[in-house]
C-alpha cells in the first residue's frame, strides 16, 4: 500500500472539528477507497485547551498556522480559518509555495485571490481544492469542473447561502421576525462570523464569483457583482409574493448576455411551482443551463459542520487518490493564466419581469398616475393587485404590480417618477423575477 497521506488542519471551529472527526471515524473506509491511509498529523487553532469532541492528541500542535503550512511534515494543508486576508491568505500562500496540496473552504479568499493562488498551485504542480467553498456539501465544483467538460454554460444560478434561505423559509412558514430567525441560524452554526456577510449577500457573491469563473472561463470578478441582501424583505413582500404565485429566495445569478456577463445577487421572486422554490431551510441549490446537457439542478445541505466537512474530506480523498501526472486538471477548469478577462454587462440593461410594491395615499388619480409612469417607460403590466392597508383610519393602499419583461433602466425610471409624483407614503419595494423551471 502507498504511504499514508499526511494532513495538517489549520482552524478547528465547527468545520475543522467535523473534518477531524470524519477522518477518524471513517478511516478504514477511506483507506479502502483511496488505497492509502489518511492521517491528521498536525493541527493549529487559536485555543489549545478547548474540548472539540475529537481526540487530536496524535497530531502535532502548532500555535502558528503559517509555521504549520511551511514546516510540518504534511502532504496536504487544510485551511479552515476563513477571511480573505490575514492568517488564511498567508498560510495558504506559504503552503502552496512549499509545494503542498491545499484544501480550503474559504470562499472569500478565493473570490479575491483565487486566480493568483491557482497560478502558484499550477506552477508548483499541486492541487488547490475548494469544493466546500461553494454550496457546502453539494459537489458543484466537481460537477462544473470535471463532469461538464465541453459544455457551454448560458446561466448558472442558485440559493448559495443557507442562512438566508433558512431565514426566508421560516419567515414565510411561521410568520417569524427576521431577527428571531437569524438568531437561530447563528445558534445552529450556519451563519458567518459576521452575519451581515450572509444577510447582505456578500457570502453569496463570493460563491457566485467562483461559479462564474468556472462557468464562463473568465477571471474571478467579485467586485463586479450587483449586490442586494434580504434585510429589506418584509412580511408584506412575502405575503404578496405568495398571493401572486411566487416565493422569495436570495439568488446568485450569472448569465451570458449580448453585452457581457451579468453577475447579480438579490432577493428574487421565483414561481412557487418551480423546483428551486421548493428548496427550503439551510438547503442550497445550484441550477446550471448548458448547450449540451440542458438544465441541471443540484441541491443539498449548504452549511453546517458535517455538510461542509463532507466536501472537505472529498477533496482530501481526491488528493490521496491522485498521483503525479494524473490529477483533475486546472484549479478553475482552465489554466489560470488562460482565464479570459471578465466583461461586465451593466445592471441597467438587465431584462426580466419585476414585482413592484407601492404604499400610496388612497385618493383619486393615484392609480392613473402610476399606470402613466409605467406606460411612459414602455412597461407592460402582467397583473395589478390593490389592497386596503389595515383599518386604523389611515387612508393608504398597497398597490402591487407585476411587469412583463422589461429592463432595469425602465423600472428605475418609472419608480423614480412615481416617487416624484408624491403619492407614496413609504419607500417603494422592487424585487426582480427570475425565470426558473
Ligand atoms: N454562512 C454560510 C451559509 C455558510 O449560511 O451558507 C456556508 O458557506
Automatic annotation (TrEMBL):
<comment type="pathway">
    <text>Amino-acid biosynthesis; L-threonine biosynthesis; L-threonine from L-aspartate: step 3/5.</text>
</comment>
<dbReference type="InterPro" id="IPR016204">
    <property type="entry name" value="HDH"/>
</dbReference>
<comment type="similarity">
    <text>Belongs to the homoserine dehydrogenase family.</text>
</comment>
<keyword id="KW-0521">NADP</keyword>
<keyword id="KW-0560">Oxidoreductase</keyword>
<comment type="pathway">
    <text>Amino-acid biosynthesis; L-methionine biosynthesis via de novo pathway; L-homoserine from L-aspartate: step 3/3.</text>
</comment>
<dbReference type="InterPro" id="IPR001342">
    <property type="entry name" value="HDH_cat"/>
</dbReference>
<dbReference type="Pfam" id="PF01842">
    <property type="entry name" value="ACT"/>
</dbReference>
<dbReference type="InterPro" id="IPR019811">
    <property type="entry name" value="HDH_CS"/>
</dbReference>
<keyword id="KW-0028">Amino-acid biosynthesis</keyword>
<dbReference type="InterPro" id="IPR045865">
    <property type="entry name" value="ACT-like_dom_sf"/>
</dbReference>
<dbReference type="Pfam" id="PF03447">
    <property type="entry name" value="NAD_binding_3"/>
</dbReference>
<dbReference type="InterPro" id="IPR005106">
    <property type="entry name" value="Asp/hSer_DH_NAD-bd"/>
</dbReference>
<feature type="domain" description="ACT">
    <location>
        <begin position="355"/>
        <end position="437"/>
    </location>
</feature>
<dbReference type="GO" id="GO:0004412">
    <property type="term" value="F:homoserine dehydrogenase activity"/>
</dbReference>
<keyword id="KW-0486">Methionine biosynthesis</keyword>
<dbReference type="Pfam" id="PF00742">
    <property type="entry name" value="Homoserine_dh"/>
</dbReference>
<dbReference type="InterPro" id="IPR036291">
    <property type="entry name" value="NAD(P)-bd_dom_sf"/>
</dbReference>
<keyword id="KW-0791">Threonine biosynthesis</keyword>
<dbReference type="InterPro" id="IPR002912">
    <property type="entry name" value="ACT_dom"/>
</dbReference>
<protein>
    <recommendedName>
        <fullName>Homoserine dehydrogenase</fullName>
        <ecNumber>1.1.1.3</ecNumber>
    </recommendedName>
</protein>
Amino acid at each position: 500500500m502507498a504511504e499514508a497521506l499526511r494532513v495538517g488542519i489549520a482552524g478547528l471551529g465547527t468545520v475543522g472539528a467535523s473534518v477531524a472527526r470524519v477522518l477518524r471515524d471513517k478511516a478504514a473506509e477511506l483507506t479502502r477507497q483511496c488505497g492509502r491511509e489518511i492521517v491528521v498529523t498536525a493541527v493549529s487553532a487559536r485555543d489549545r485547551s478547548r474540548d472539540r469532541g475529537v481526540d487530536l492528541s496524535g497530531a502535532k500542535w502548532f500555535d502558528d498556522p503559517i509555521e504549520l503550512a511551511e514546516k510540518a511534515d504534511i502532504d496536504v494543508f487544510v485551511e479552515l480559518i476563513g477571511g480573505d486576508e490575514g492568517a488564511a491568505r498567508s498560510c495558504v500562500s506559504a503552503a502552496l509555495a512549499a509545494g503542498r496540496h491545499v484544501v480550503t473552504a474559504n470562499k472569500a479568499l478565493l473570490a479575491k485571490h483565487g486566480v493568483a493562488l491557482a497560478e502558484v498551485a499550477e506552477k508548483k504542480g499541486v492541487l488547490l481544492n475548494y469544493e466546500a467553498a461553494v454550496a457546502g456539501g453539494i459537489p458543484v465544483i466537481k460537477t462544473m469542473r470535471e463532469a461538464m467538460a465541453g459544455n457551454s454554460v448560458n446561466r448558472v444560478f442558485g440559493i448559495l447561502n443557507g442562512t438566508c434561505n433558512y431565514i426566508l423559509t421560516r419567515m414565510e412558514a411561521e410568520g417569524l421576525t427576521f431577527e428571531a430567525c437569524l438568531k437561530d441560524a447563528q445558534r445552529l452554526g450556519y451563519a458567518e462570523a459576521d452575519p451581515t456577510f450572509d444577510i447582505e449577500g456578500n457570502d453569496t457573491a463570493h460563491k457566485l464569483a467562483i461559479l462564474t469563473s468556472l462557468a464562463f472561463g473568465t477571471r474571478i470578478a467579485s467586485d463586479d457583482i450587483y449586490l442586494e441582501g434580504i434585510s429589506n424583505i418584509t412580511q408584506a413582500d412575502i405575503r404578496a409574493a405568495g398571493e401572486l404565485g411566487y416565493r422569495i429566495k436570495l439568488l446568485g445569478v450569472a448569465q451570458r448576455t449580448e453585452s457581457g456577463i451579468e453577475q447579480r445577487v438579490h432577493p428574487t421572486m421565483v414561481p412557487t411551482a418551480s423546483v428551486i422554490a421548493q428548496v427550503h431551510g439551510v438547503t442550497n441549490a445550484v441550477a446550471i443551463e448548458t448547450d449540451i446537457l440542458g438544465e441541471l439542478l443540484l441541491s443539498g445541505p449548504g452549511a453546517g459542520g458535517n455538510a461542509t466537512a463532507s466536501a472537505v474530506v472529498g477533496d482530501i480523498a481526491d488528493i490521496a487518490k491522485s498521483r503525479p501526472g494524473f490529477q483533475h486538471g486546472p484549479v478553475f477548469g482552465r489554466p489560470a493564466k488562460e482565464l479570459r478577462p471578465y466583461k461586465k454587462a451593466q445592471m441597467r440593461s438587465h431584462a426580466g419581469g419585476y414585482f413592484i410594491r407601492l404604499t400610496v395615499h388612497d385618493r383619486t388619480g393615484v392609480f392613473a398616475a402610476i399606470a402613466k409612469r409605467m406606460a411612459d417607460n414602455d412597461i407592460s403590466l402582467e397583473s395589478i393587485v390593490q389592497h386596503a392597508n389595515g383599518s386604523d383610519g389611515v387612508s393608504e393602499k398597497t398597490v402591487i404590480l407585476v411587469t412583463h419583461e422589461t429592463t432595469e433602466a425602465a423600472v428605475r425610471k418609472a419608480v423614480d417618477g412615481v416617487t416624484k409624483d408624491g403619492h407614496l407614503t413609504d419607500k417603494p419595494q422592487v424585487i426582480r423575477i427570475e425565470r426558473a423551471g
